[in-house]
Amino acid sequence: MIPFRKMHGLGNDFVVLDARAAALAVTPGRAAAIADRHRGVGCDQVIILEPPPPGADVFMRIRNPDGSEAGACGNATRCIASLVAEERGADRVVVRTIAGDLPVERLPGGLWRADMGLARMRWDDVPLARRADTLHLPLALGPVADPAACSMGNPHATFFVDDLDGLDIPSLGPALERDPIFPDRANIGFAQVLAPDHIRLVMWERGAGMTLACGSGACATIVNAARRGLTGRRAAVSMPGGDLLMEWREADGHVLMTGPVATAFTGTLDLEAAT
């Protein structure tokens, strides 16, 4: 039996396993079993903490509910940073992922701000299967068309719509995630711009489906909205689980994400039985 912590950022929930002292055999199959909401603990992603490499305070590995590995997760980054910061009595933590280093700092009011790094907008950075204009992808399905795309350490496409409530996202999401233009699949955002500083967003996450919130999705949305001239570089992004304050910093092109973290409960699980 090994301990775990169930955490969430705006309802985007994670099972956190600590493999810093001793390695844990969290295979893709075991991660999928843990994430199962009926037969496991249940979560949007399984997070494994690993020993910190030079220049970072912790390494964070991310497994989706289908067992696949993700490169970035903004809400999980804030959660893990808060844990490590409490351990160290620090107000700033560097979380490393397979997509790079993510500095996170504590702010007043229980908020944490993560520097999610650069948004990458070249077609081969997203990546796309062929050369295309990432500001206007040649992609459409039913009532949605003409998304913008970028990478936030994982591939994102954002559709801007007039009426978010009128979309059947559970039907649209799976097909768009797996469209041949995305060789690694993609996270699909459906965004409604309410004001120059306010966006409403629902995400279909690659390997996870609909989630209550998605940090990297909010990052991609502010970047794509600003590129389209629909908003400025700062906006609140409202998702079903709550709001994130987003900024696409002009000075260096980094995307900053501010939001809360929470621990739901702790427990133990039988890793060998997770199949």
Please provide a written account of the structure.
The strands form two sheets. The chain has a 17-stranded mixed sheet that branches. It has helices at residues 28-35, 74-88, 169-177, 215-228, and strands spanning 2-9, 12-18, 45-50, 58-63, 69-70, 92-97, 100-107, 111-118, 140-141, 144-145, 148-151, 155-160, 187-195, 198-205, 209-211, 234-239, 242-248, 254-260, 262-269. The longest helix is centred in the first third of the chain and has 15 residues, at 74-88. The chain contains four helices and 19 strands. With 275 residues, the protein is of the alpha+beta class. It folds into two domains: 2-117 and 260-273, Diaminopimelate Epimerase, Chain A, domain 1; 120-252, Roll (Diaminopimelate Epimerase, Chain A, domain 1), CATH 3.10.310. The chain is 17% helix and 41% strand. Strand 11 and strand 12 form a beta hairpin. 44% of the residues are buried. The two termini are 15 Å apart.
Quick take:
The protein is built from four helices and 19 strands.
Number of strands: 19
Strand content: 35-45%
CATH class division of the largest domain: Alpha Beta
Proportion in helices = 10-25%
According to CATH, the fold-level topology of the largest domain is: Diaminopimelate Epimerase, Chain A, domain 1
What about the largest sheet? Answer: 17 strands, mixed
Shape: globular
What CATH architecture of the largest domain would you give? Roll
Mean pLDDT: 96
What is the H/E string? EEHEEEHEEEEEEEHEEEHEEEE
- Give the total of domains: 2
Uncertain spans: none
CATH superfamily of the largest domain: Diaminopimelate Epimerase, Chain A, domain 1
What is the radius of gyration? 18 Å
